Structures are given as structure tokens and as C-alpha cells.
Amino acid sequence: MPGTVNRTTRNVPQPATRSPAQLPRFRAQLRRQRTRCFVALGSNINQPLLQLRRAVQALDTLPQSSLQHCSSVYRSQAMGPGQQPDYLNAVAEIRTALRPHALLAALKRIERRAGRVYQRRWSARPLDLDILLYGHLSYRSRSLTIPHAGLMQRNFVLGPLLEIAAGLALPNGRALDTNMLQGLPGRLQKMPQPLWPRRRQR
Ligand code: AMP
After folding, report:
1. Mean pLDDT in residue range 5-28
2. Nearest CA to ligand 1 atom 23
3. pLDDT mean over 123-148
4. Residue 54 domain flag
5. pLDDT level of residue 2 (50, 70, 90 thresholds)
6. Which residue is closest in CA terms to ligand 1's atom 5?
7. Which of 67, 73, 124, 176 has the fewest Cβ atoms within 10 Å of its own Cβ atom?
């Protein structure tokens, strides 16, 4: 596959050769080899809040990965064609040893399980999952662009991302800053319902 991919996700050691006494060290080693990623979640049909909650549970069970944080839920206006219900959006932080295309494939499987049928661009959907950031990777292929191409143009992505990762250094060297939200179109409303109640470190 063309493009540059973070080398730290290669050669993940297998647990079979470890004794129980070695397991804590082995787990710590695995954690270090996982890349910090941010995934955008969106839904505007078929009970959007339930869809986002299920998606977060699915992210929490991704192989070779762990869910770290979730933003609040935000309501945003649909960008798509015609009249569409508002979206509910959020951003989740995961750490994963999955390579970028494997992560994309896993996200697409979660979308399909949520009943997503691929229609025309911007159409209403029960679940949309996008890779926003994958460590410090800048990557472009026919099916995957990282950082996500809409990251800096969409308040419903940038708003929740800023909530959980303000100050984060982007691959271009800039730090995530609330000023980046200025001038972005569309209303964005933070909702009271928690998506994932706990902050967790594994
Ligand atoms: P969407 O309509 O948002 O589900 O995205 C449609 C297509 O965008 C997907 O089938 C992906 O191949 C492609 N794509 C490109 N970059 C990304 C990314 N960073 N995250 C998710 N999908 C992406």
C-alpha cells in the first residue's frame, strides 16, 4: 500500500510466550506501541443517540485497541441535500495497534452493522465513522486521507475534538486551538446526555 505509515504499529509481540509474571510488562509494552487516534462519530436517523452509544461500545471492543476518551454529544445541522434531521456528533479517542487501512475497514464494519447503506454523498445515515487523526501521520491514498479532509472545515468535528484534545499538536505542527472554530458555518449545540460516562486509562 503506498504512503507512509507509522512504524510503531509493526511487530506487535504475541502474548503466548509470556509467563503470567511478565504480563504487566507485556501489556505496558503493547500500550506504548499503540497509536493515538481520534474518530468522529455522526448519526441523524434511527435513534441517533442510541447509534452513537452503540458505536462507542463497538470502538471499545476493537481488536488491539482501547477507548480512551469520548467528547460530549453535539447537535449540528445536516450538510446534506434536501431536508434532513439534525445530526448528533461526537469524537472518541482510541489507542490502537491497527494500521490505518485496517482501522478504516473496522470502522466500516461497525457502520454496516448499524444498518448503514452506502448511498449518495451527504445522505442521511444511521452512523458515520471517520478517522480524524492517526498519531502524527499525514497520509493520502484513494480511499483514505489522514488527517481527515474535513477536519478544519467542520465545526461538528472540530468542536468535540477540541473538547477532548485542546492543545494537541497536529501533523502540520499547529496546535489545536478554539480559535480554529471561528468562522465555521452551522449551529452547534452541546447536549447534556453523556455518551460514555467514564474516563478510562488501560
Ligand atoms: P463517508 O461518506 O464519510 O462514510 O466517507 C466515504 C469514504 O471516504 C470512505 O469510504 C473512505 O474510503 C473515504 N475516506 C477518506 N478518508 C477517510 C477518513 N480519514 N476516514 C474515513 N473515511 C475516509
Report:
1. 64
2. 144
3. 94
4. yes
5. very low
6. 130
7. 124
Is there a domain that residue 42 lies in?
yes
Q: Which of 17-26, 50-59, 108-117 has the lowest mean pLDDT?
A: 17-26
Ligand 1 mutation pick, 99, 104, 170, max ligand atoms within 8 A of CB = 104
- The reply to whether ligand 1 has any atom less than 6 angstroms from the CB of 93 is no
Higher pLDDT among residues 82 and 22, named by residue: 22
Using a 6 Å cutoff on CB, does residue 130 contact ligand 1?
yes
Residue 122 lies in a domain: yes
Q: Would 87 be classed as within a structural domain? A: yes
The number of the ligand 1 atom at minimal distance from the alpha carbon of 128 is 4
Domain that holds residue 141: 31-190
Over residues 95-135, the pLDDT tens digits come to: 999 999 999 999 999 999 998 776 667 777 899 999 999 99
* Total count of domains within the chain: 1
Rg of the chain taking only CA atoms, in angstroms: 17
